[in-house]
Amino acid sequence: MKKLLLFAFAACALAACSDDDGDSRVPATAVVLDCTEKELAVGETLQLTATPAPANTTDDVVWSSDAEEFATVSESGLVTAVAAGTAKISATYGSVSATCTVHVSEPDPEPDPDPNPDPEPEPSNLISFETSEGMLAIDGKAVQLGDITVSGGSAAGNHHNVFWAKGGSYDDLAVGGVYNGYLCSTSDEKIWFGTYFSADIGYGDYWGGFVLSANYGRTATSVNYANQFMVWADKGANGSSNCMIGYFDGYTSGYATPMIEFVEPRQVSYLYMANSAITYPYKPTQVDEASYYYKVKITGSLEGKETGSAECFLINGSEKLSDWKKVDLSALGKVDCLTFSPASNEANAYGLLVPAYFAIDEIGLIAEK
């Protein structure tokens, strides 16, 4: 009798275990895709999502394509269009599945290029300061570079191939020996270059802003103000003869800061910049040569509001600009003034210690429509 009871108990326990194993598997009874039909171009993709019922099914999804030459599907349901044709993408959970029909077509052809596209803006009115361009002095006469005499100071003496605001109409317009105005203009008098000149009153002739020069050389080994009209190059930008030399005087207002003014707003595409024969050989005293930099910031403005700026490093550690460099100014947009402001870490509480000279040449203006 005891054996019979033990056998019955064991049979019941086995049956109970069998029922528990069966309950641990939850088969899927249905599956739904978030997309049942889609058009794709070759190369495009489609992420499909399958939702089974019940949500706690123990079945895993299996993705498949019935025409992989047209569309493939990854284990995560990402469909990739391969070639023109139709493929059925299936998501299967156990014994149930759902399908998305994918129609693949060739991508639309690229449109034919416009046979007459609008031309890219091209520089016009290149300003290279050549005699043939007819630059005009303040009295309306043609600019003529020639011999000048600097009175007093470390640069005293005669200099050749220079045009500055001393003598003639400039002296007539000076107030107390100081001229603060325009040096010259383009032949149409629509673009003007500012300058500052102070006659010798015990400290020597002094200038700021811009002067015209045709002096070039790379032989200076130290700072010599007799080289203030010389560019560290063999010629002007792209072989021109003349260029503008700028000097920034941070203590004097007006055109002692180099600037170019436009009677009618224009967009400047670029200009070229170079070191002067003073700045190139300068040795810093406040910082080591490896960290020393000297740069010029060019700021555009229109009706007194800044439109943007660009920078040109003339010296950056061991890298010294030894020829002309093209500087892109197209991002400044239309301007009626360009201002040139040197900056350097070679400075003290009173301002820059590096002589703030630089040169510009070949200014390219965007053609007006």
TrEMBL record:
Residues 1-18 form the signal peptide. SUPFAM superfamilies: Invasin/intimin cell-adhesion fragments. It comes from the Bacteria. Residues 27-103 form the BIG2 domain. Residues 107-121 have a biased composition (Acidic residues). Keywords: Signal. It holds the Pfam family DUF4465. InterPro entries: Big_2, DUF4465, Invasin/intimin_cell_adhesion. Residues 103-125 are annotated as: Disordered. This is DUF4465 domain-containing protein. It comes from Alistipes shahii. The lineage of its organism: Bacteria, Pseudomonadati, Bacteroidota, Bacteroidia, Bacteroidales.
